[in-house]
Every structure is written in structure tokens, then in C-alpha cells.
Design brief:
- This protein is about 15% helix and about 25% strand.
- The chain has about 375 residues and is an alpha+beta fold.
- The longest helix is centred in the first third of the chain and has 14 residues, at about 115-125.
- The two termini are about 40 Å apart.
- The structure holds 2-oxoglutaric acid and fe (ii) ion.
- 2-oxoglutaric acid (AKG) binds near residues 322 and 341.
- One of its GO terms (biological process) is DNA alkylation repair.
- GO terms for molecular function: broad specificity oxidative DNA demethylase activity; cytosine C-5 DNA demethylase activity; ferrous iron binding.
- It comes from Xylaria hypoxylon.
Length: about 375
Amino acid sequence: MASKKRTIDAYFGIPKAKKPRDSDAVVLQEKHTAPKATKTTSCHTTTYDTTKPTTSTHSELANYSIHASYPFPILHLPYALEAEISDLPARAARVIADQPDLDLLYFEPYISRQAARQLFEFLRSELPFYRVEYDIMRSGIKTHIRTPRWTTVFGLDETARFEINHPSASGSISDPRSSKGKVVDTRTGKPIPVGTYDTPEQKTQTGYKAIPRPVPHCLDVLRRSTEAATGCQFNFCLVNYYASGADSISFHSDDERFLGPFPAIASLSLGARRDFLMKHKPPKSEPGEANSNDTSKGSLKLPLGSGDCVLMRGRTQANWQHSIPKRSGKNEWDGGRINITFRLALVRGGTENYYQYNVGSGPVYKWNAAGQEMRPWMQTPKP
Ligand SMILES: O=C(O)CCC(=O)C(=O)O
Ligand SMILES: [Fe+2]
């Protein structure tokens, strides 16, 4: 996402990022038809069924991640795919650090091509997507921005976590939407109001304006294996869907203060191959001397294929920008591409920013397989 958008909060005094505490555990409970085991990592606990049927069964299809913040239950991965992406990388990474301030790990691929194709199809079909629009001030003029790609996001910054949900305390288990998984303060365990737009809480700043959403199981499997593969910790998962070459992301850095000074961002590609361009930021000093197209300090093009992963770390975000440019001509319609980034947001500003610019307040869309396009998702009325 363009830094112009993501850095808006910086202008409104988001506090400087603090070091995360070891005890800052985000707890995510998901409801399954047959919970069998619990796996714990430094930041998430997920209860899930480890029974591996040899074929696709009815109970497998009945497994969903359910949370009040989701527009609809989100299907779990098929077992075979889950097993494959629990054990990554498919191939060791190479370091790319041969230019000033650049520090990348490039897994080519990170996920086998076959599993990447399945994961692409699965996520495009099962996740809720948004086409976010918003206004910014550009040179004193109010400008309307239409995000040129589909987006969705899950996660919560280190200052809060999702409370373990006890089905008995949240009503009938047979109603999937009764599951609450409240947001609570990491230190005190006290509930934090969410979705406080246009309410008194918004003014007193006690609540989240956003409605944070736990990382669903299908992405959490990948989040956990990516933590293991990179040695980094992540609490946010941003997803971009580029339907065609007309969808893009312009040059930006993911260098917001809420990510801390040396953020590690794992960026995974699925589906169509797209060029990932990087260029060193122009020197700040002499105004007028360097323009934004200045690549004298270095540039790089990675033609990211399905299953590839780039870990951007160290001084990279502070000094480099990256983009996925539009592409036209014969390659414009060679299939969509999904990009998943895992990040670690340290403070509330990260949560507010990510939901504002990746979910927004517009309609929910879901993939329509027959029409091969995103269509507005209609909520089925409860009986
Ligand atoms: O799609 C990509 O590879 C890059 C996405 C990106 O830079 C972002 O979401 O910040
Ligand atoms: Fe980015």
C-alpha cells in the first residue's frame, strides 16, 4: 500500500513505536467441528483438528474460521495443502544485499508451484475483499483515491489481543456468528471497545475505530510457518489481489513508525508473474536536486513468480521504495495475482491504519467463480 496512505496517521501524532514485550501474546481461538490439538507460538494460539483424512470429507468442509468481525465464515485449508504450507520454505533463500541499505531474502520459490496455485485459487475464492476509496489532501487540494487493486487485512497490533472465546459464554454454538473473540488490552486483559466510529468512545480515544479481525486459520498456517522460516514475528496479514495488469501499487515504503525502525516484512506472491520494482530513495538534502525518479543510488527488478517470497528487512524500508507497476499488452490478462504481506505492528496506529486503507467502509466483495470476477457479497438474512 502506498506510503502516502499509510503514513497519514503519522501526521496526527501516532506515538513512536515501542519495543514489543515478550508477553504480548495475541490469542486466537477458532471453532472447529473436532478440535484435537493446540499449537502455540510466540504470538498466536490456534486450536485445530490435526486428524488427516485420506480424502476430502464432509467434516473437512465443515471447518471454518468464525468471528463476529468477519462478514462470513472463512473456510479452512484442505488438509494436504495445510500440511504442505506448514513446512516451508520449499527452497532455501538467497540474500540480496549487494546495494546500499538493501537487505532482502529471496525464496524462489518459497511454496512449491503446485501448492502456490492451489493456495491462490483457495484464497481468491474464500476471503472477503474490498475496493477501498478515500480522500487525501494533495498540495492543499482534496483528492479522491480509488485503490487500484483489491485488498483485505487481518490482525491486531501488539498492545491488544483477541480474548479466548468460550462458546458457552457467547450464546448458541450452532449460530456461527455468536462467536465474539473480544479485543482485550495485552497488559491488563480489559476489553477494548471496537468499531467506535462516530461514537463518544472515538472522542475519548479509548476504543479502536477499526473492527480488528483475527487472522483466519487459512492464513495463520502460513503466518506461523513464515515466522519459523524467517525467525521474525508477525501479527498482521495484508492481502492484495491484482485482477489484471491494470491493477497495481505505486512506489512506496512500508516505513510507518508503528512498524518500528527496522521492520521485517515477508511478501509472498501467488498466481500471475509480476515485476516487483525497487529503487533507492533519493537523498533528502538538496531540494530540487533529486527527483522521485532518481535511481542513481540503485534499482532492482524481481520478476516475482507464483510461490516466491521476499523478506524485506533491516534498513530496506527506510531507504528503498517498491512498486508493482501496471502492465499492458499481451500480458495484461494472464490471470490474477495475490500478494500476502506479513508484518508486525507495534502500536494501535498500525491497526487503525491497516483497516482504514485495506477494508474501509465500502461493500464486501467475494470471488464469483462462474463470472470469474469479484462481486458484491450479499448477506443472507438470518431466519
Ligand atoms: O504486491 C506486492 O508484491 C507488493 C505489495 C506491497 O508492497 C504492499 O502491500 O505494501
Ligand atoms: Fe509495500
